[in-house]
Amino acid sequence: MPQAWSAGLYEGELRRMILAYKERGLTALAAPLGLCLAQVVAVALGGAGAVRLVPVPSARSSTRRRGYDPVARLAAHAARGLRRQGRPAVVSPVLAHRRRVADQAGLSAAGRAGNLSGAFRVAPGELSGAVVVVDDVVTTGATLTEAAVALERAGAHVRIAVTLAATRRTWVKPQM
Question: Which CATH number does 4-166 carry?
Answer without folding.
Answer: 3.40.50
